[in-house]
Write a sequence for this structure.
């Protein structure tokens, strides 16, 4: 699976003065190999003395692309192309460095892959820049052979190499005559071609069909498929080779997250996004770095009522990453659907283990809008429930108000199907969205969860917040819904909610998120 980190030689994150805060592991190895010293503190110090002033000036200019020459231990020139992006917080830059070939490689003909004889990455980058220099409009696509690593591990390097050669032949055979085809590395191919969007779709569908045919290698029938990400020379405000690579990689990650064996086109430029985080999320999935913790929910009487499953990420490279950082990025790139399915299955298996000691326990799991919008969402939920062999009535799916209001016909059908099977639904972050009595009575909702922003000011001495929370509780009870108060942190809040007949409390006052084994052994009265 290609990531931005693997396409560029180095990805760095700096502050506005160029002080280095993060270097991709591959980038650190590459830079230290060139300089044979440890990483400097400032980006400018990576470059030869003649370039340092210009690189420093770029930090305060509108120029996003530049060329430079790195410091090297042996005195040889190491020319690089550099792309700068300001991150969404406005206080950091992301720099992507790519080593560029010497002047003798302008046509790419002398810089070819030994295995497939296709042009390699430096030649691909130069070809992109050449076409952009002519103001040509063209498509750029990344092809990834799914499960290639499994072939390598199961049958060895010789079979894997033969598969790559055959894949290159198939691509050459079915691509239009004006297609420029190259190999980016490992199981990754890239191509550039012109034509309309309709022609693009036709060509890519042909590629997917071709890769669906079995590959016969050394007498073995290997069944493979491809996933494709596409970007356009017209995407973004300042296109360049780095931009097209990043945009196509973004589309490829989204296609992988949706199940693979398909192609997706880059939809829009996400200005200021930390692309290294996108890559790290996908690597984190591959490395098993994500896990669940559980925040207990208690009734007003102190009885353990259930728990909410919460996703956490401990990255090998970055340490603990806040959900507030990775979940929005995962949602933007379609990765949240995969993470959501995984979380649902794990939570159901943990539910199976806790029910014998806590009969009636309810497990709450968050569902993203993209998950809920999937045509087979109901089937996914029931498969997880049946696989874990848990009562459907013990599972509570938490969805937001905006999810309910989006594509209401499909939403209503999915809700009805799952509710008929016994699955319960809770409205998360209640009060921050539409807050319409109409949808509360229309959809088969079991409970509402009052958002923490409404609970925080309760008991502060102001009457308005107390009256608002009381009105929400009364509204829910009037139509026979349970009420969960989220973010309960003080005894004053607990007392007010008890007097207001709130059903369930969740927050640091009653219990912080804990590992499952701690939840299983929780000592409650």
């Amino acid at each position: 699976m290609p990531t931005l980190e693997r396409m560029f030689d180095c990805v760095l994150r700096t502050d506005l003065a160029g002080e280095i805060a993060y270097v991709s592991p591959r980038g650190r190895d590459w830079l230290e190999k060139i300089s044979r010293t440890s990483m400097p503190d400032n980006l400018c110090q990576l470059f030869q003395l003649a370039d340092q002033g210009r690189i420093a000036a770029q930090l305060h200019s509108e120029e996003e692309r530049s060329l430079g020459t790195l410091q090297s231990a042996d005195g040889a020139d190491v020319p690089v192309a550099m792309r700068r992006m300001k991150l969404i917080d406005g206080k950091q830059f992301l720099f992507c460095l790519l080593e560029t070939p010497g002047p003798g490689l302008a046509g790419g003909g002398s810089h070819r892959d030994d295995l497939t004889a296709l042009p390699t990455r430096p030649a691909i980058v130069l070809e992109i820049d050449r076409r952009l220099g002519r103001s040509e409009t063209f498509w750029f696509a990344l092809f990834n052979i799914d499960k290639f690593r499994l072939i390598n591990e199961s049958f060895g390097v010789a079979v894997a190499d033969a598969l790559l050669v055959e894949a290159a032949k198939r691509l050459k055979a079915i691509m239009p005559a004006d297609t420029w085809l190259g190999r980016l590395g490992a199981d990754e191919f890239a191509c550039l071609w012109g034509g309309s969007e309709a022609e693009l779709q036709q060509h890519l569908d042909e590629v997917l069909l071709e890769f669906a045919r079995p590959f016969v290698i050394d007498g073995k029938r290997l069944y493979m498929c491809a996933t494709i990400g596409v970007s356009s020379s017209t995407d973004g405000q300042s296109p360049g080779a780095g931009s097209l690579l990043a945009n196509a990689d973004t589309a490829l990650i989204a296609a992988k997250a949706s199940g693979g064996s398909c192609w997706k086109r880059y939809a829009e430029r996400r200005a200021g996004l930390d692309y290294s985080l996108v890559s790290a999320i996908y690597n984190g999935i591959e490395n098993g770095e994500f896990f669940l913790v559980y925040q207990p929910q208690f009734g007003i009487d102190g009885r353990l009522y259930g728990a909410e499953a919460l996703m956490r990420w401990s990255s090998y490279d970055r340490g603990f990453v806040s959900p507030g950082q990775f979940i929005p990025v995962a949602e933007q790139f379609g990765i949240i659907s995969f993470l959501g399915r995984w979380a649902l299955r794990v939570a159901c298996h943990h539910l199976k283990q806790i029910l014998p000691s806590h009969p009636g326990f309810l497990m709450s799991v968050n569902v993203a809008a993209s998950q809920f919008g999937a045509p087979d969402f109901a089937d996914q939920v029931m498969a997880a429930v049946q696989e874990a062999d848990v009562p459907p009535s013990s599972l509570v799916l938490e969805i937001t108000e905006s999810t309910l209001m989006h594509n209401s016909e499909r939403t209503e059908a999915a809700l009805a199907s799952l509710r008929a099977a016994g699955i319960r639904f809770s409205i998360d972050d209640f009060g921050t969205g539409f807050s319409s009595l109409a949808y509360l009575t229309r959809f088969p909702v079991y409970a509402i969860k009052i958002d923490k922003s409404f609970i925080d000011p309760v008991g502060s001495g102001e009457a308005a917040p107390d009256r608002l929370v009381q009105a929400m509780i009364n509204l829910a009870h009037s139509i026979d819904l349970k009420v969960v108060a989220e973010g309960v942190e003080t005894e004053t809040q607990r007392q007010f909610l008890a007097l207001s007949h709130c059903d369930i409390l969740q927050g640091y006052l009653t219990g912080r998120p804990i590992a499952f084994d701690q939840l299983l052994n929780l000592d409650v009265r």
Observations:
- The longest helix spans residues 336-354.
- The radius of gyration is 27 Å.
- The chain has 20 helices and 21 strands.
- Residues 1-7, 101-110 have pLDDT under 50 and may be disordered.
